[in-house]
Design brief:
The chain has 315 residues and is an alpha+beta fold. It has three domains: 77 residues, no CATH class; 114 residues, FAD/NAD(P)-binding domain, CATH 3.50.50; 79 residues, no CATH class. It has a five-stranded antiparallel beta sheet with strand order 6-7-8-5-9. Strands 1-2-3 form a three-stranded antiparallel beta sheet, with no helix packed on it. A two-stranded parallel ribbon has the order 4-10. The longest helix is centred in the last third of the chain and has 28 residues.
């Protein structure tokens, strides 16, 4: 690669982007979609198609065409905050051994007897002094308030009477379906073993409407095994059927100019009609973002309940 002019141009663009991008956080260029930003600043096709767009597509499980519509400021701020605008001084990331379920168990341990799994909610009706939640298994139950920690489209389906603001905000943050396949087929990884990475982006000959990539779980989770365990997103047809271990269907939030604008309206609907909203979609779409939004919702709930109690006593 070092002798290819296009590769050298890409490296030059990477260094320039890392050096100049942060300035756009306070500049009107940050309002541009990512594709428009790259075009305005004359970044090359090699940089766009083989570096910055694949990086974003892999991070947010979003196809390349949609990545170009990402708000540049949202994209650059994430890269800046996570140390991705550096070549040599990038942070070392840690993962929870055994995956996310290993932090969920201790998180709910103190109230696990109250956790109801496989209990679909049919309806949520809000009143001025209580909330009624209906499920097929338990019927209608009455609560003081409700926290909705689901995807936006699921939240709207559950609400009996969503307000105009709730409809506008939640419908502006869409989700995309992705299929994840756990397998041991090494042909989904780069041909050269030295090129194997934790995240391996697939540049396919025929463009699709969804991102395709393979996570090397042995690297991600530090698995020492004779087999290489991989998780491939949206490229099932390329996997040897005899090496497939499990298929899982996921939905991931899509970050568009409209959805990023909707994030700023969180306060308009949070706490309205005894309803609080939390989820990773309010921030960058990751597990940590879900936790932060939940803590924010609880803090807002406590403040609201304290104010109501104070006013009730004062009256």
């Amino acid at each position: 690669n070092i002798f290819r002019p296009s590769f050298l141009r890409m490296v030059k663009d990477i260094l320039r982007f890392n050096r100049e991008a942060v300035e756009s956080l306070e500049h009107e260029d940050g309002e541009l979609p990512l594709g428009g930003y790259l075009k305005k600043h004359q970044y090359g096709e090699e940089f766009k198609n083989h570096y910055i767009i694949p990086m974003g597509a892999a991070i947010w499980s979003t196809d390349a065409r949609l990545m170009e519509t990402f708000p540049a400021r949202f994209f650059i701020r994430f890269f800046h905050n996570h140390g991705l605008l550096s070549v040599n001084d990038r942070p070392v990331w840690h993962v929870i051994k055994g995956g996310s379920r290993n932090y969920l168990e201790p998180l709910v341990n103190s109230f696990k007897e109250n956790v109801r799994l496989k209990t679909p909610i049919k309806n949520i009706v809000r009143f001025h002094d209580h909330v009624e939640i209906e499920s097929e298994r338990y019927g209608i139950e009455t609560y003081d308030a409700v926290f909705i920690a689901t995807h936006t489209n699921e939240a709207l389906r559950m609400l009996e009477y969503a307000t105009v603001a709730e409809t506008e905000v939640l419908s502006a943050i869409p989700y995309q379906h992705n299929e994840a396949v756990l397998h041991t087929d090494e042909t989904l990884l780069p041909k050269r073993r030295l090129a194997w990475a934790a995240w391996n982006y697939h540049i396919l000959k025929q463009q699709r409407d969804k991102v395709a990539l393979t996570y090397n779980m042995n690297i991600l989770q530090g698995i020492d095994a004779p087999l290489t365990f991989n998780v491939t997103l949206n490229n099932t047809a390329a996997i040897d059927p005899g090496k497939i271990l499990k298929r899982v269907q996921y939905e991931h939030p899509l970050f568009t100019p409209e959805s990023v604008a909707a994030q700023s309206r969180h306060a308009e609907i949070n706490g309205t009609n005894r309803t609080w909203y939390c989820g990773a979609y309010w921030r960058n779409g990751f597990h940590e973002d879900g936790v932060v939004s939940a803590l924010d919702a609880v803090e807002h709930f406590n403040e609201t309940m304290y104010e109501q109690l104070y006013l009730r006593r004062a009256s």
